[in-house]
Amino acid sequence: xxxxxxxxxxxxxxxxxxxxxxxxxxxxxxxxxxxxxxxxxxxxxxxxxxxxxxxxxxxxxxxxxxxxxxxxxxxxxxxxxxxxxxxxxxxxxxxxxxxxxxxxxxxxxxxxxxxxxxxxxxxxxxxxxxxxxxxxxxxxxxxxxxxxxxxxxxxxxxxxxxxxxxxxxxxxxxxxxxxxxxxxxxxxxxxxxxxxxxxxxxxxxxxxxxxxxxxxxxxxxxxxxxxxxxxxxxxxxxxxxxxxxxxxxxxxxxxxxxxxxxxxxxxxxxxxxxxxxxxxxxxxxxxxxxxxxxxxxxxxxxxxxxxxxxxxxxxxxxxxxxxxxxxxxxxxxxxxxx
Amino acid sequence: xxxxxxxxxxxxxxxxxxxxxxxxxxxxxxxxxxxxxxxxxxxxxxxxxxxxxxxxxxxxxxxxxxxxxxxxxxxxxxxxxxxxxxxxxxxxxxxxxxxxxxxxxxxxxxxxxxxxxxxxxxxxxxxxxxxxxxxxxxxxxxxxxxxxxxxxxxxxxxxxxxxxxxxxxxxxxxxxxxxxxxxxxxxxxxxxxxxxxxxxxxxxxxxxxxxxxxxxxxxxxxxxxxxxxxxxxxxxxxxxxxxxxxxxxxxxxxxxxxxxxxxxxxxxxxxxxxxxxxxxxxxxxxxxxxxxxxxxxxxxxxxxxxxxxxxxxxxxxxxxxxxxxxxxxxxxxxxxxx
Amino acid sequence: xxxxxxxxxxxxxxxxxxxxxxxxxxxxxxxxxxxxxxxxxxxxxxxxxxxxxxxxxxxxxxxxxxxxxxxxxxxxxxxxxxxxxxxxxxxxxxxxxxxxxxxxxxxxxxxxxxxxxxxxxxxxxxxxxxxxxxxxxxxxxxxxxxxxxxxxxxxxxxxxxxxxxxxxxxxxxxxxxxxxxxxxxxxxxxxxxxxxxxxxxxxxxxxxxxxxxxxxxxxxxxxxxxxxxxxxxxxxxxxxxxxxxxxxxxxxxxxxxxxxxxxxxxxxxxxxxxxxxxxxxxxxxxxxxxxxxxxxxxxxxxxxxxxxxxxxxxxxxxxxxxxxxxxx
Amino acid sequence: xxxxxxxxxxxxxxxxxxxxxxxxxxxxxxxxxxxxxxxxxxxxxxxxxxxxxxxxxxxxxxxxxxxxxxxxxxxxxxxxxxxxxxxxxxxxxxxxxxxxxxxxxxxxxxxxxxxxxxxxxxxxxxxxxxxxxxxxxxxxxxxxxxxxxxxxxxxxxxxxxxxxxxxxxxxxxxxxxxxxxxxxxxxxxxxxxxxxxxxxxxxxxxxxxxxxxxxxxxxxxxxxxxxxxxxxxxxxxxxxxxxxxxxxxxxxxxxxxxxxxxxxxxxxxxxxxxxxxxxxxxxxxxxxxxxxxxxxxxxxxxxxxxxxxxxxxxxxxxxxxxxxxxxx
Lengths: 338, 338, 328, 328
Ligand SMILES: Cc1ncc(C[n+]2csc(CCOP(=O)(O)OP(=O)(O)O)c2C)c(N)n1
Ligand SMILES: Cc1ncc(C[n+]2csc(CCOP(=O)(O)OP(=O)(O)O)c2C)c(N)n1
Ligand SMILES: [Mg+2]
Ligand SMILES: [Mg+2]
What we know:
The complex is a heterotetramer, with two copies of chain A (338 residues) and two copies of chain C (328 residues).
Chain A: E1 8-9, H1 11-25, E2 29-33, H2 49-57, E3 58-60, H3 65-77, E4 81-88, H4 96-103, H5 106-109, E5 119-124, H6 139-143, E6 149-151, H7 156-168, E7 173-178, E8 195-196, E9 210-213, E10 218-222, H8 225-239, E11 244-248, E12 251-253, H9 257-267, E13 270-277, H10 282-292, E14 302-306, H11 315-321, H12 325-333
Helix pairs in contact in A: 1-7, 3-4, 8-12
Chain C: H1 5-30, H2 55-62, E1 70-73, H3 78-84, H4 88-95, E2 119-121, H5 129-142, E3 148-153, H6 160-172, E4 176-182, E5 185-186, E6 189-190, H7 191-194, E7 211-214, H8 219-234, E8 240-245, H9 265-271, H10 274-286, H11 290-313
Parallel strand pairs in C: 1-2, 1-3, 3-4, 4-8, 7-8
Antiparallel strand pairs in C: 5-6
Helix pairs in contact in C: 1-2, 1-3, 1-10, 1-11, 2-3, 2-8, 4-11, 5-6
Bound molecules: thiamine diphosphate (2 copies) and magnesium ion (MG) (2 copies).
One magnesium ion binds next to strand 5 of chain C.
């Protein structure tokens, strides 16, 4: 794209802008959730919407996730396009049936005769000592269960384009945004997530990974925070004379296995990074997808994921447990050549 | 073990017997759930308990999973040892917070000063046309999240020993039993799951896989129904002159990676079977665990899992989608040698 | 608000269609399932929850609804689907798992979706509620007519979704009516053993909405009470909670031994089977003769037979179609 | 049931300890967080929910409890933890993330567990309820004394867990008391905008239990009303639901701009701050002098200072200890 004028936005603002654009052109689009009205969302991604569209279309809800997500399913099947917010993804346990057994499956149960065009947006991730019930990613928990698309941007450009694509999609989409990339200063901010965002509407297609850095020696695959760790690790590896390719999955469902496989075919080495828990997660899925395709590897693939422990509050423990560029570099340096 | 007299039990009866034994010796053990009282459990695994122990210790609950699983957490932390039943694992979405954010994490949040010695037993699996909200396995959904052990027997001997071990464990244990192995005629019965069960109390350790058949050419890894598909496939492969080793994981958490890795080191080939959904599941985890250990492979590993679709009701579709011995044999026959 | 004669006949006829449908399904369900009862076998595999006895809840409510109104239901949906006007042929075919079924066989008996008449259901207890509230909200926001009716069992009134959904409807004054079919059993657990109040309708005060309890499984009383609630919803007066005393004449699902039921309960309920009672009422009220009755029964039976025949004659879908309609 | 002078002094003292604790935490929380406010920084990172203003709910209830009784709380737990007798040094150290903390720093401020006094909490709305019911059941089954008290915010009364837990307690007549701290806000959403009834205590009828609303954030009234409920629970009379009108003098969490709060609301609440009111009451009732007040305040402050000093002086755990205590 040709940039007329740099217009750097945070992911939070990019999301709010995308929602506003769609709300202006499609009166079926509305937003529901806790504190998404006057407050503008705890993570800023609905800021300004209440003022522009009013309390009817930007609805604060009771703390009743089962009810309002269930209601979104009903409204979506009746012609509306709800965007609902689950404030922290960690809270999915109080309302997951409405998500995985209704939102995700009703279209199938109806043989395609009912559509559920809704977006469930939800915050993920830790790093700021919010402890074990407010810092999780649970990417795989959502991506494992069929019938919903699951996407997660790593920068504001993708956030806007993927939010617009999600709203326009005829299927339910879970839109995960990572708190530390949100551009809210009080959560710490990953500056690289704040990028130029065109004013107009555009879509970033769901289900397409992006090679965000090209390289020849190793493929680093990540999503949200993992992408930024990967990019930083790639810069460190460059200083070691190693050329790392970084793939931003962007979407967990549909999963763009081809892009990952093509990359590993080229580099022969694979490191998968995830802030979600280690076992039964995204890292295992990516590694399995590559090896079952019979890609020839120069070294055993490695993963840098959150250990299988509840997320500890105290800073020394939490920071130690999180994925990091250092851990990726070290994973590369200790790879078992085969 | 030296068998005095063959005493073949179904998994349902083995589970009920294990619970009864522990209830007799430990008055802290009690059972809660829907229809587990006079009815004896929809899947028979509490049959006889109500009569022996009465309504106080074998408590039918309202249809309020969040309340009674939350109550089990509170009771367990107060010195009791509740066994609670979530009738179908598919219902986890209405109560998962009590499970994954409390049951599983309270011990950690309390720095080990609080224990939550409870068993959550729940039925899994399909094959009898119970459709998309009553046929799921969601093994990985539970196993992905830290703080709970997750086990699932494939035969009555293991079921009894693992249930006793689960009740005696000081940690929360999710005990998954597959409906088609339960020995309830009305669900169809896998006869190989009905095996000799000693009368006395014994433990089968949690977190130890079992090599249920030895072989040299390929390792087939499964759990519950997958083990039986694997064993049948192994018999078919034997007819082809192929020697298959079959590993019954028995436990998803802790996961006995060593046993799997040792087996694949020997055979050089790996097929993972799971009735749970394909992506972001157990099959990916096992394959990744083997290859990241640098095990030398003769062929690309393969998986036979449930496709990423809601489980269809109609028999032709459901049977077509389920894992089967034929699919395992065919996976072996089409393996890409490397 | 009394039903007209025409409405009463409509109600009776749909009670008959429902009852004949269930009786037919009951028979066919057993095909291939004896001598050994195995749910997986026969032309209708899987769980089967019959609604025999609960027909008044279906017709007394749906008599007030048109196709544009929304109904959400549960794991026991046939009677209400029929009263709501779900295409019976496509529904029967769905229950048989045929390609001509409502979803091409993907959903089955617990997942009846017919968008033409705005009917849907869920097999998860309590999950009829949120979607109905949301559909009601949708009508308000779109300024389109239509009310939503969410059915649930009395057992479901102890599920969190009940509380959340009713509160949401109450706060937002949504045009939705909640109908509890109180058959006094949740599988083997009695209402008394699971519910801290005698009448779930008393719970309406917790949501700032009117609550009504209707005794006697009586379609006429149901018609009257529900009619007012639906009118109030249409007029912007907000939601209502109604509990209807009804009876489960069969087991929870087919294959249920029902040993937990007190001796004589079922026999007593058979004696107040709402269908003969309705026939007697029609006779008394309108001089409805035995010949009239035979005619309406023949009509109902023909509808059911046609639907069943259609289902039997239809083809199964190709197995690989399982992969379709996950995303659209 | 009036509190004795000793009990009133105990209440006042614990209100003071709580208030001083919160004021101190508030200051320390801001260390390292300016000029740029970043939650991740400073000696106390993460979210911080202060309980200033809600002290009466803590002391009026806990005055009736001993260590063996069970209390479950929420994301805003300090005041109640203090009144329940949680080891303040270990709690402060926990909030600082130190090795000497209650869990060695694993839990933090939203996960205060002290089994010595049977106190625990959860950061998930509504999840204080089920565990309290279960602990109460445990006491009944073990024939051990002790009641359970589950606290929740008024916002939590719209969560499904509320309904399910209260129904369970009602059906099983468990010795548990549910205390709603109604500070009229759930983050930025007012009770009025989220709740279909004026008073959550009216919801008690839905669970066959008594419901009480206590106005005025008054520790003495709370003591009286709750005392009866706790006694009833101890006597086998089953559960009670009590809603206490209280006030959130601070933001939802630290960093909350509170633009959503109507102008003047906070100032008006400051004027009825329960702590000076309690002091005045003690003066009127018992001739409690300024000197007495200074003495009790000094005592309270010393307790807080000691705890904070302990927390400051304690060491951080080793990072790898994160891997411990997942299973035990
Ligand atoms: C959340 C959930 N819990 C449990 C079940 C299993 N279940 C299916 S029907 C049923 C009883 C329902 O009772 P009620 O609501 O009274 O409806 P009825 O069967 O009497 O029509 C139960 C417990 C379920 N489907 N969903
Ligand atoms: C299930 C769930 N939903 C949402 C939240 C986010 N949240 C934390 S506190 C809060 C407001 C709670 O209000 P209330 O119950 O009145 O307690 P208060 O904060 O006033 O003490 C919300 C919505 C949560 N922690 N858990
Ligand atoms: Mg019922
Ligand atoms: Mg509040």
